[in-house]
């Protein structure tokens, strides 16, 4: 039903090593990697925005592949322009000369899975045949420079995933969508000052007490599955790996790119694209802002 054709990537242009910020933030040498498992981040320059990186990612597609595109769905928590959506900017800066359904989602780490659910439904109802999901976030621009707790976690970047309705693709086997009440302040960007704040222990508790059991339940009848989760970092993913059934495999890349928020899962798929498309069963799992969890179990 849903075939992943290509994924294009645009990361922030500034490569930032742990050594670049350890002394500044009061970390001992090697302590950031020890705590988070992250070696480096990609930070957007002053001139790079969520919109500009999204446009750059989309522009990498061969024009012949997207000439019959029906929809562009964008996902971001950190637009430089509150509206219209990034999808509109991408469409305007493209060479497409047909009507396109432009849709924007205000979501973070669950956003890619949420957008996939929308595309899958549109495919299933025969409303469209080809779509691109755009993800783009620049968290670094909205984190206080001296915020020791989260400054070392996040990277900036954008992705563009080309999807096609095709019998050779994956079919939906199961899914879960959930949110927890009274958790908005656990990961929030306040409109007044624009600063992102995160309560790390609450986000970790949510991942362990809510996300992990729901993933385990989704996989209860699955013997073999390749899991592509949001790259929240070492502590969360190490804990999740202990709960998955034997025969299932978790993919990671947070050590090289940090937490890319909405672009986390598509970047992970991109880095393991051949393995992903040759899989018989895959689980995509996003969790974070909300606090919310979205997982999509697909099989061929």
């Amino acid at each position: 039903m849903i075939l992943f054709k290509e994924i294009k990537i645009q990361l922030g242009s500034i490569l930032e090593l742990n050594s670049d910020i350890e002394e500044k933030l009061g970390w001992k040498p090697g302590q950031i990697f020890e705590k988070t498992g992250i070696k480096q981040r990609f930070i957007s320059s002053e001139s790079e925005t969520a919109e500009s990186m999204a446009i750059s990612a989309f522009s990498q597609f061969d024009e012949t592949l997207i000439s019959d595109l029906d929809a562009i769905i964008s996902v971001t928590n950190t637009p430089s322009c509150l509206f219209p959506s990034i999808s509109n900017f991408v469409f305007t800066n493209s060479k497409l000369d047909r009507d396109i359904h432009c849709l924007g989602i205000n979501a973070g780490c669950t956003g890619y899975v949420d957008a996939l659910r929308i595309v899958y439904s549109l495919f299933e109802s025969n409303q469209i045949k080809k779509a691109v999901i755009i993800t783009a976030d620049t968290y670094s621009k909205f984190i206080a420079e001296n915020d020791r707790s989260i400054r070392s976690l996040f990277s900036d970047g954008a992705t563009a995933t080309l999807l096609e309705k095709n019998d050779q693709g994956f079919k939906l086997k199961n899914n879960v969508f959930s949110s927890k009440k009274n958790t908005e302040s656990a990961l929030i960007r306040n409109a007044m000052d624009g600063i992102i704040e995160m309560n790390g222990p609450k986000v970790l508790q949510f991942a362990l007490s809510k996300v992990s059991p729901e993933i385990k339940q989704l996989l209860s009848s699955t013997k073999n599955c390749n899991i592509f989760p949001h790259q929240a970092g070492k502590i969360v993913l190490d804990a999740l790996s202990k709960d998955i059934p034997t025969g299932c495999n978790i993919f990671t890349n947070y050590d090289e790119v940090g937490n890319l928020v909405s672009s986390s899962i598509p970047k992970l798929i991109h880095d393991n694209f051949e393995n992903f498309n040759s899989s018989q069963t895959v689980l995509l799992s996003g969790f974070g802002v909300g606090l919310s969890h979205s997982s999509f179990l697909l099989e061929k």
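The domain at 2-165 is CATH 3.40.47.10 (Peroxisomal Thiolase; Chain A, domain 1). The chain has eleven helices and 14 strands.
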